[in-house]
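Exercise: predict the fold of this chain.
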Amino acid sequence: MSQEKKPRLEIKPKKFTDPSVVISIRIPRDMLQALDEAAEKTRRTRNEIISMGLEFALENFEISDE
């Protein structure tokens, strides 16, 4: 008799937990359109998409000495 694994919902804690702050940025219109399309497709807010992208960038970027 095989034991099936039960589906599990893994919820990880947020890495950044300080209160939110409002900022203003300038981005190309086509980038904004791409963000809005991603938000619509994933049923997330524009803010969530931007925050997820920034978190990914902070975890994966490398500063190089040129």
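Check your answer against the key: The mean pLDDT is 91.
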